[in-house]
Structure formats: structure tokens, C-alpha cells
């Protein structure tokens, strides 16, 4: 069964929909995600790029991630909400920031990554954890 997900930024200037199954659901603890979210981690759901429809024009910040590969971070230029990440390490996949989903309960973490920089007070529970990107 194909999942249908929808979401938007804080101000609503950018919305999106996904018609497809997630390629992965993870919690990233890398320093770049911490800085980008202003939080301890980033909860992200990988979806096929072809299954993502974006309404509005997100701004893009491109840089070299901790992996040494190119990363594009898409966000709303009006309200600043981080929306998606496109990483050279995972071609054809867009990583949706799950806090922007209309139904964030659709997210179930499968793995924690970049735990080498995980905040010491944050527990991963029974979810598998990797020092870096597996």
C-alpha cells in the first residue's frame, strides 16, 4: 500500500506531498543537523525524490557535510523552517524533516546515525545506533 503524506513549513508558504513508501526513517545526531535544527538531532524520513511534490519555492543552502559529500538543505525563506535534505550520499532520495509532516506520528525511527556526536543526555532506547553513517 502506498503511503500518502503531506506537510508544510510553519508559515504555510511551502507545502508538500509524498506518494510513496519511505526509503528509511532515521534520527541523525551529526553536528550539522544539530546546528541546522537548533536541537539535539534531526528526525528525517527518506522518500523517493520522484514521489515528492513541492508547492512553493524553498531556499537552498549547499555545503559539504561531515561525510565529506555535498548536502543541500531546503528551507522556507519566509519562516526559516527546515523542510528537506538532499545528500550526495543517497541519490534519488529526499530526506523530509518529520516535524513538518501534518501527521508526525507517521514517523517511526529505524536507526540513529552519527551517534559519535549524540548529546550524552539523549537515549536511543531499543532503536539500533551507528557511530557514523552506516
TrEMBL record:
The keyword Signal does not apply. PROSITE patterns: CENP_V_GFA. One of its GO terms (molecular function) is metal ion binding. It comes from the Bacteria. InterPro entries: CENP-V/GFA, Mss4-like_sf. Residues 5-108 form the CENP-V/GFA domain. Keywords: Lyase, Metal-binding, Zinc. Belongs to the Gfa family. This is Aldehyde-activating protein. It comes from Pontixanthobacter luteolus.
Amino acid at each position: 500500500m502506498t503511503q500518502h503524506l503531506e506537510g508544510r513549513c510553519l508559515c504555510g508558504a511551502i507545502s508538500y506531498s509524498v506518494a510513496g513508501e519511505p526509503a528509511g526513517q532515521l534520527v541523525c545526531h551529526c553536528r550539522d543537523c544539530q546546528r541546522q535544527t537548533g536541537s539535539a538531532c534531526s528526525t528525517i524520513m527518506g522518500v523517493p525524490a520522484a514521489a515528492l511534490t513541492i508547492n512553493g519555492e524553498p531556499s537552498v543552502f549547499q555545503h559539504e557535510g561531515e561525510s565529506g559529500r555535498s548536502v543541500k538543505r531546503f528551507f522556507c525563506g519566509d519562516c526559516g523552517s527546515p523542510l528537506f535534505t538532499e545528500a550526495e550520499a543517497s541519490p534519488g532520495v529526499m530526506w523530509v524533516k518529520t516535524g513538518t509532516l501534518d501527521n508526525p506520528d507517521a514517523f517511526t525511527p529505524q536507526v540513529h546515525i552519527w551517534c559519535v556526536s549524540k548529546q550524552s543526555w539523549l537515549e536511543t532506547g531499543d532503536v539500533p545506533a551507528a557511530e557514523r553513517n552506516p
